[in-house]
């Protein structure tokens, strides 16, 4: 059986927050705002896995009004979601993602993100593809007000 899932997330860029994307801290003058560490890429990916499993979304599993998970490391969210997938007997075929950000440049950080994600999903680096794009200064991402991410995963068993 194969199952496809998609995810999309957006977080606002603000001062005095760390910028964490794909489990990697990226040096930048602003960071993403959220109830968690606001890792927009891991949130999109976790939602894609939950979508493939037909198990809702991360807001259902990790409510943003739960004080016990305030500031949670999103790697823990993805690990927990992946545990669900494994319990249901699934393995990953591939994951493809895109980070939509005018700045900063993601390219140098993508290999480390791939390592983090492939380690959590227990797969090879080649099964995890991460891309980045600007929006040519258009829209909220183009104005640097926020960062968005999309993910697609294919699971099999
Ligand atoms: N935040 C970003 C945005 C883009 N990149 C890389 O630059 C390439 C060109 O971007 P365009 O938006 O002009 O298509 C893109 O393909 C990425 O490789 C990046 O590293 N970080
Ligand atoms: C991750 C959670 C929970 O801490 O909070 P946020 O960091 O605000 O992220 P978001 O993508 O808005 O929604 C999912 C939430 O459940």
Automatic annotation (TrEMBL):
Q: Which chemical reaction does it catalyze?
A: 4-CDP-2-C-methyl-D-erythritol 2-phosphate = 2-C-methyl-D-erythritol 2,4-cyclic diphosphate + CMP
- Enumerate the UniProt keywords alphabetically: Isoprene biosynthesis, Lyase, Metal-binding
Q: According to the lineage, what is the superkingdom? A: Bacteria
Q: Which residues does the annotation list for site: Transition state stabilizer? A: 35, 134
The EC class name is: lyase
Residues noted as binding a divalent metal cation in the record, renumbered to the chain: 9, 11, 43
Q: What is this protein called?
A: 2-C-methyl-D-erythritol 2,4-cyclodiphosphate synthase
Give the cofactors, semicolon-separated.
a divalent metal cation
**Assembly mode:** Homotrimer.
Sequence similarity: Belongs to the IspF family.
User: SUPFAM superfamilies from the xrefs?
Assistant: IpsF-like
State the pathway, as annotated in the record: Isoprenoid biosynthesis; isopentenyl diphosphate biosynthesis via DXP pathway; isopentenyl diphosphate from 1-deoxy-D-xylulose 5-phosphate: step 4/6
Chain residues that bind 4-CDP-2-C-methyl-D-erythritol 2-phosphate? 9-11, 35-36, 57-59, 62-66, 101-107, 133-136, 140, 143
2-C-methyl-D-erythritol 2,4-cyclodiphosphate synthase domain location is: 2-155
Provide the E.C. number(s) assigned to this enzyme: 4.6.1.12
Xref: InterPro entries:
MECDP_synthase (IPR003526), MECDP_synthase_CS (IPR020555), MECDP_synthase_sf (IPR036571)
One Pfam short name: YgbB
Tagged with keyword RNA-binding: no
Its biological function?
A: Involved in the biosynthesis of isopentenyl diphosphate (IPP) and dimethylallyl diphosphate (DMAPP), two major building blocks of isoprenoid compounds. Catalyzes the conversion of 4-diphosphocytidyl-2-C-methyl-D-erythritol 2-phosphate (CDP-ME2P) to 2-C-methyl-D-erythritol 2,4-cyclodiphosphate (ME-CPP) with a corresponding release of cytidine 5-monophosphate (CMP).
Q: Which PROSITE patterns match?
A: ISPF
Any GO BP annotation: isopentenyl diphosphate biosynthetic process, methylerythritol 4-phosphate pathway
Q: How is the cofactor bound?
A: Binds 1 divalent metal cation per subunit.
NCBIfam families, per the entry? ispF
- Give the GO molecular function terms: 2-C-methyl-D-erythritol 2,4-cyclodiphosphate synthase activity; metal ion binding
């Amino acid at each position: 059986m194969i199952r496809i899932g998609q995810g999309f997330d957006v977080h606002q860029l603000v001062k005095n927050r760390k910028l964490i994307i794909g489990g990697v801290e990226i040096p930048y003058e602003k960071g993403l705002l959220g109830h968690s560490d606001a890792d927009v890429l891991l949130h999109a990916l976790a939602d894609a896995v939950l979508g493939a499993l037909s198990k809702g979304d991360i807001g259902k599993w990790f409510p943003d009004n739960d004080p016990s998970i305030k500031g949670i490391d999103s790697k823990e969210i993805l690990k927990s979601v992946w545990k669900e997938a494994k319990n249901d007997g699934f393995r990953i075929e591939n994951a493809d993602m895109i980070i939509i950000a005018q700045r900063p440049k993601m390219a140098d950080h993508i290999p480390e993100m791939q390592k983090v994600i492939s380690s959590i999903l227990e797969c090879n680096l080649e099964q995890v593809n991460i891309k980045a794009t600007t929006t040519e200064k258009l829209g909220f991402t183009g104005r640097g007000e926020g960062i968005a991410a999309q993910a697609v995963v294919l699971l099999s068993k």
